[in-house]
Design goal:
There is one protein chain. By secondary structure, the protein is mainly β. The protein has 2 domains: 2-143, no CATH class; 158-251, Jelly Rolls, CATH 2.60.120. The chain has 1 helix and 21 strands. It has one helix at 144-154; strands spanning 2-8, 14-20, 31-32, 42-43, 57-61, 65-66, 71-75, 82-85, 94-99, 107-109, 121-126, 131-137, 158-163, 176-181, 186-189, 198-205, 212-216, 222-223, 228-232, 237-243, 248-251. Strands 13-14-16-20-21-18 form a 6-stranded mixed beta sheet, with helices on one face. A 5-stranded mixed beta sheet has the order 5-7-9-11-12. Strand 1 (2-8) and strand 2 form a beta hairpin.
Length: 252
């Protein structure tokens, strides 16, 4: 079986590149695409098996460049500072940028704080109007998981607090955290996966909640491989996340 990856060179001409894979994590195949520009984009691997997590199109850069949707830009600023310009914020577009070297030269993503520490990275998602930094990792500030979960929590823009009810919350609204209070059990139905970008929804048992919250999803989708997810116990909370083209909600 082969995966077909589209490489977009700096002059915006799409070049289809077929990359063989055995569908196992850790595949690493280098394909260099020569361009008339000052950088040489290089695919250095496929992130995870086919059908798994979002597959970044990894590109190594050593000079300033403009990113493209789906690229994971590995910036080596050893010789000079690097500026990464984000393109038009088409809804659902995603770009990852990481500083791979230990020099003092910054890697600046236009509109956001510079990456100044080796292995520091950020993930940027467009909502159709502007770019937003959705996830970031800085070595020395706690585990990757804890930092990502903090940023996911900050992505929840609305909070709904209500007493448990026999009426399901269906579908739950993207970007919303639902806090259930009282003692009546509550059903929450997750929405369809997004047509672009990532959907994040929070669910929380109130501080004295004694019921059970059952989270389900749309037909054909799963939650960590299961048909439902249950929260019990005061204070328990989880974040549910799914990306464009995926069918399995991830739980944090």
């Amino acid at each position: 079986m082969t995966d077909v990856i589209q490489v977009v060179v700096q002059d915006q001409t799409p070049i289809p590149v077929t990359v063989p894979t055995d569908d196992d994590s850790g595949d690493s195949i280098a394909v260099t695409v020569q361009t008339p520009a000052t950088i040489t984009p290089t695919i250095i691997g496929v992130a995870g098996p086919q059908g798994g997590a979002f597959q970044w199109m990894w590109v190594t850069v050593t000079t300033s460049t403009t990113g493209s949707d789906g690229q994971g830009l590995l910036a080596n600023a050893t010789s000079n500072p690097i500026t990464i310009t984000l393109p038009t914020p088409d809804a659902g577009a995603q770009i990852l940028a990481a500083k791979t070297d230990s020099s003092v030269n910054p890697v600046t993503v236009t509109g956001f704080d510079a990456l100044t520490v080796q292995n520091q990275s950020g993930t940027y998602i467009a909502d159709g109007t502007q770019w937003r930094q959705f996830m970031a990792y800085t070595p020395g500030l706690g585990s990757v998981v804890s930092q990502i979960n903090q940023l996911k929590q900050s992505a929840l823009q609305a909070n709904v607090t209500q007493a448990g009810s026999a009426t399901p919350i269906s579908p739950a609204a993207a970007g919303t955290e639902y806090e259930i209070t009282g003692s009546t059990s509550q059903s929450i139905v997750l929405p369809n996966p997004p047509s672009g970008g990532t959907t994040v929804i929070g669910v929380k048992c109130g501080p004295s909640y004694t019921g059970t919250i059952t989270v389900t999803c749309q037909s054909g989708d799963t939650i960590d491989g299961q048909s439902s997810f249950t929260l019990t116990g005061a204070g328990q909370q989880n974040i549910f996340e799914i990306g464009n083209g995926q069918t399995d909600w991830q739980v944090a």
